[in-house]
Design brief:
The chain is of the alpha/beta class and 367 residues long. Helix content is 39%, strand content 14%. It binds pyridoxal-5'-phosphate.
């Protein structure tokens, strides 16, 4: 789906130099690259930042900082990556599934209202595929319940309307959590993650948890974890952050080319929530009439990769089946059969997209 050699080509010399500088510095844990990246990221987002080892750690640490534990319920959409729910179980709490909107793939606050109980201690709102979830309506339906914005797939996305217009995804909840997994919109050359918050007290607590719960060296105040961003990854991310906006702009051009190329196909539903604030982490179409898997196979035959994010609702996964949903997750159950993510990224041209759109058209009009 992504060709990193081509994506990195315009700034390859800077990346090589950044990696070499860390290798030659002898500073392999923490140090100036990590501090520098944290301050640049914080300036970019206009919020406090604490880097950690990956996006899953960021979610777990956010829940730990909010005091989530046994007996607590945390609401999470069933249509997301496993990490969003896994961390709830790791802390001995209970995941409570809610549904998403078919049109945005993000949390449906009406479904949220059906699963809230006195034990609901947090809500994980996932900004899926690069678009902002509707945090404002969650706040209205669940006032006072802390929201963790799982921003692994939406670094750089912004709201374009409502109370949070102009703000970045991940900066309005109790915490935002980021992943710098290589395929993400701001991707490292390995694992990386961060917590984001405007609440300094909460962020300091999270930072302490990420460092074995220590206040100062060898003084441990609470049970924590060991989770830190590697300086090599910080150095890479400092370079890539400079090119972030260019990367999003080229994805937007490709998304427009997909929309133009696919608009006339009635069996395909193009993403309906693409606006100025969407960063196009994925371009995910819905394939109706049960044709999704056949279309995927057809594309494969034409040399085109595509991905299914996600083939199962998390409530259907063996690991999480003990958390039975309280009601039918209609949108999730439909989307897992319909979604197909098409290639998108700076390594592609609009001609590539036209080729892919033509291959999809050929699937439907082959005789
Ligand atoms: C929605 C979501 N949450 C969390 C994560 C976890 O991030 P990481 O792989 O950095 O642990 C991912 C990664 O794919 C994700 O897509």
């Amino acid at each position: 789906m992504l060709d990193f050699q081509r994506i990195h080509e315009p700034y390859k010399a800077s990346l090589d130099q950044a990696l070499l500088d860390v290798a030659n510095s002898g500073q392999y844990i923490g140090g100036p690259e990590v501090v520098g990246f944290e301050s640049e990221l914080s300036r970019f987002l206009d919020a406090g930042v604490c880097t950690v080892g990956n996006g899953t750690d960021a979610l777990q640490i956010a829940l730990m900082a909010l005091g989530i534990g046994p007996g607590d319920e945390v609401v999470v959409p069933a249509f997301t990556y496993a990490a969003s729910a896994e961390v709830i179980g790791l802390l001995g709490a209970t995941a409570v599934w809610c549904d998403v909107h078919k049109s945005t793939f993000c949390i449906n606050s009406e479904s949220l209202s059906k699963v809230l109980t006195q034990n609901t201690k947090a809500i994980i709102a996932v900004h899926l595929y690069g678009a902002c979830a509707d945090i404002e309506s969650i706040e209205k339906i669940a006032p006072g319940i802390p929201i963790v914005e799982d921003t692994a797939q939406a670094f750089g996305a912004k709201w374009t309307s409502g109370k949070y217009a102009g703000r970045f995804a991940g900066t309005v909840g109790a915490f935002g959590t980021l992943s710098f997994f290589p395929t993400k919109s701001l991707g490292a050359m390995g694992d990386g993650g961060a917590l984001v918050s405007k609440d300094t007290k909460l962020l300091n607590l999270a930072s302490k948890i990420a460092k074995h719960g220590q206040r100062e060296k060898y003084v441990h105040e609470m049970i924590g974890v060991n989770s830190r961003l590697d300086p090599l990854q910080a150095a890479v991310l400092r370079v890539k952050l400079k090119y972030f906006n260019t990367s999003v702009e080229s994805r937007k051009v490709l998304a427009k080319a997909y929309a133009d190329g696919l608009a006339h196909l009635k069996q395909v539903i193009c993403p309906q929530n693409i606006d100025e604030g969407h960063i196009l982490h994925q371009y995910t179409i819905r394939v109706t009439n049960g044709d999704r898997d056949a279309l995927k196979a057809h594309l494969k035959q034409s040399g085109i990769d595509s991905m299914i994010y996600y083939p199962m609702g998390l409530h259907q996964q063996e690991a999480y089946r003990h958390w039975e949903p309280n009601y039918t997750l209609e949108a999730t159950n439909t989307l897992v059969q319909e979604v197909l993510s098409l290639p998108i990224g700076e390594h592609l041209s609009t001609e590539d997209v036209s080729y892919i759109a033509a291959a999809i058209e050929a699937f439907y009009n082959h005789d």
